[in-house]
Design goal:
The chain is mainly alpha-helical. It contains 14 helices and two strands, in the order ααααααααααααββαα. The longest helix has 17 residues. The radius of gyration is 21 Å and the shape is elongated.
């Protein structure tokens, strides 16, 4: 239990905190300095318990009240260390940070690490990615959708397209309205497919595409190593790279039927395909 040596001398302390945090009548006994370890203990205790049987919201609200973002982020990083050391075991303990934290940064980190740390199973090669897709469907979370699209890996396009195929225009609008996504092969292709299937979302998708070039100067298609704990180094493998003007030309014909001429001109400028004074 080297992960916890700076906070406790024995496994019995973790067990004690797990028992306290799981007992509403005794949670008041947990001091503010003990809550980061208590939330980890709770995560370990409930990692494989069905969501309906957990008290995540109630427990995490007390954690939020006593721990500022910096300490909650530290607790998240400790969870990540434990999951890496245990080769993906108990990755579900990250769920509570994704679902209950008030910080978009913590939610984003939790979502990304769920996808990249979850170990493959006999039933599912990428269980973390599938888990995030299911969460997006149930919550319409723009943050989780942004985390999924940030992977830049087209192997996950079939997972992402289930959202396009199974969700209504209104539900997807909620998910993408506040979406912050940089340009990459996965995010761009998903948005174009979404537009082709849900043309009523043209205004929202146009707005996202117009902002994308501010977040990156190229479009990458990569292979993300999953589960990440199997790899000693970062290990991301670049498969292909396009400049922004090059990739705009790949999208242009598919966007034109759904986006107005004036908006296409704006996109052309934003993606560096044509200077404004030449349009």
């Amino acid at each position: 239990m080297g992960l916890f040596q700076d906070q406790t001398d024995s496994l019995s302390e973790i067990k004690r905190l797990a028992a306290l945090v799981n007992n509403p009548a005794r949670r008041a006994e947990i001091g503010s300095d003990q809550w980061p370890l208590a939330i980890i203990a709770y995560g370990l205790l409930t990692a494989n318990i069905p969501q309906a049987d957990k008290n995540d919201k109630e427990v995490y609200q007390q954690f939020l009240q006593v721990c500022p973002e910096e300490r909650r982020l530290h607790a998240l990083h400790q969870c990540l260390m434990f999951i890496k050391q245990s080769k993906g075991n108990a990755w579900q303990m990250l769920d509570i940070f994704l679902k209950e934290d008030s910080s978009p940064s913590i939610q984003l980190q939790a979502a990304f690490n769920i996808m990249t740390l979850a170990a493959p199973s006999n039933e599912e090669r990428f269980p973390g990615v599938q888990h995030i897709v299911e969460f997006i469907r149930s919550s319409q979370s723009s943050i989780a959708l942004g985390a999924l699209l940030s992977l830049s890996d087209l192997r996950f396009l079939p997972y992402a397209t289930t959202l396009i195929e199974k969700e209504s225009d209104q539900t997807l609008q909620t998910s993408i309205k506040m979406l912050e996504s940089g340009p990459n092969a996965l995010s761009c292709e998903w948005l174009v497919q979404c537009l082709e299937k849900h043309s009523s979302l043209h205004a929202e998708i146009y707005a996202i595409l117009k902002k994308m070039p501010l977040k990156g100067d190229s479009v990458l298609d990569v292979i993300v190593p999953i589960p990440s704990w199997q790899f000693k180094a970062d290990g991301i493998q670049a498969l292909h790279s396009w400049t922004l003007p090059e990739y705009y030309l790949r999208m242009e014909a598919r966007l034109t039927p759904f986006i107005s001429k004036e908006q296409m001109e704006d996109l052309s400028v934003a993606w560096g395909h044509a200077p404004k004074d030449q349009i």
